[in-house]
Specification:
It is a single chain. The chain contains six helices and twelve strands. The protein is an alpha/beta fold and 199 residues long. It has one domain: 3-Layer(aba) Sandwich (Rossmann fold), CATH 3.40.50.880. Strands 2-1-3-4-12-11-10 form a seven-stranded mixed sheet. Strands 5-6-9 form a three-stranded mixed sheet. It has a two-stranded antiparallel sheet with strand order 7-8. The two termini are 14 Å apart. The structure holds glutamine.
Length: 199
Amino acid sequence: MAGSLPPVGVLALQGDFREHLAVLAGLGADARPIRRAEELAEVEGLVIPGGESTVMDKLSRAFGLAEPLIAAIGSGMPVYGTCAGLIMIADCVLDAIEGQQSLGGLDIAVRRNAFGSQLDSFETDLDVPALGDPPMHAVFIRAPIVERLGADVTALASLDDGRVVAVEQGAMIGTSFHPEMTGDTRFHEYFLDKVRGRA
Ligand code: GLN
């Protein structure tokens, strides 16, 4: 598995970055926590974890990481964002808090906390044709929904009502849910395939 795989990073400012590091290490990757621009410069792929996008946004700017992250995304580095991470890479964030910014890169509009307070979290099985069988068990926690997809964006998975919860655009993938929590490593493998393809 490791083979020609360059080091990959997990943005480690806030959220469940440890879980992503564990999944990637389990797949044989040299996975590193990223908190500084110098660390970002050493990796060739990045996972942005779930957590709280408003906090991640503030910390990334306070740590001087926002600009290097935007540059890395712009250079075509493979990036996988889960939940708050998906919000961070969306070009447009709906129901953002005052002053909240995203890094952007993914031509989508995403709505934060789209399931409202009555349904903060839930689990369901999703068909993800790009990843094959079986369906993926998906955990949603105060999750966002993708409300608009640009012309170059592909929906990878939708809920039964048609709302999009996983997308891909070039080297970028995003999921509203948390594969790092369920032991299903197919999205992380898909991400590592993109890193390997670019190396
Ligand atoms: N609601 C959170 C946000 O807006 C995301 C929740 C999560 O990452 N599980 O950032």
